[in-house]
Amino acid sequence: MSETSIREYLESHNIYPERNYRSSYGMYLSPIRYERKASFKVDYIKDVFYDFSIQKGGGLKVLKFYMNNGHVVYAKSKTKKINIKLENKIWKIQKVVSEELFRYAFERKIAKQVLDKYCVEIHYGYYERYPLKALGFKNDSEGYEFRFKDSKERKGCLINKDITTYYNSMYSDVCLFEGFMDFFSFKTLYPNFESNYLILNSTSQVKKSFVFLNKHQRIFGFLDLDSEGDRVTGLLNNHYPKKFYDKRSLYKGYGDLNEYLIEKH
Predict the structure, then answer these.
(1) Stretch 76-95: mean pLDDT, rounded?
(2) Is 124 in a helix, a strand, or coil?
(3) Taking the model in full, what pTM does it have?
């Protein structure tokens, strides 16, 4: 069995089953051709797939070949090369209207006015007719961080990965967050607080933030209370010893600012 399972590989491409049958297998819309009814089976135990419409299947290596090389099998022993690969696209961007997404945000205790100001609803995926819906948060490179919840929390990035910044020359302070859910939590907790803001969207992007942080007299850090949050907090404290302030004592005893918001409010 491969280190990465077929199910995990499909999830990394934001492809999820239309229906799961206990923990043994799932039925998907085929990722290697267009269809309206799920006929692509993934056996979670054997870690193999089978496409009933074309009567072809195999392991992860075979699936990668079809998905990465733009090959679609149409009939037994025939493989046709097509010029267009399936792509994970954003099909629609709009204000948040989905009841399911509102429910998810409200479970996280995020205020509606914060969603209306900073968040969008994105429809994305491999099939325009059958998009996935998620909360979207725009970054500085026209990409979108996204989150939604079905059987578990899902998150990722579409188009380009980057930090997100909000800058007003009136303010000399900046508040820094790991992810947009922590930023939304802060704006829910302190709706009248004014400052500049920087959201890393991934701790791997911390060095990208230096140019923006250099513009400010004080930096208030709201990182997660875990080993990675400790690492980034230490890095920022060493880089800006006279102007970085670790504000995690605000939610001491909780994993992050959103967890604090959920439990305390």
Answers:
(1) 63
(2) strand
(3) 0.70
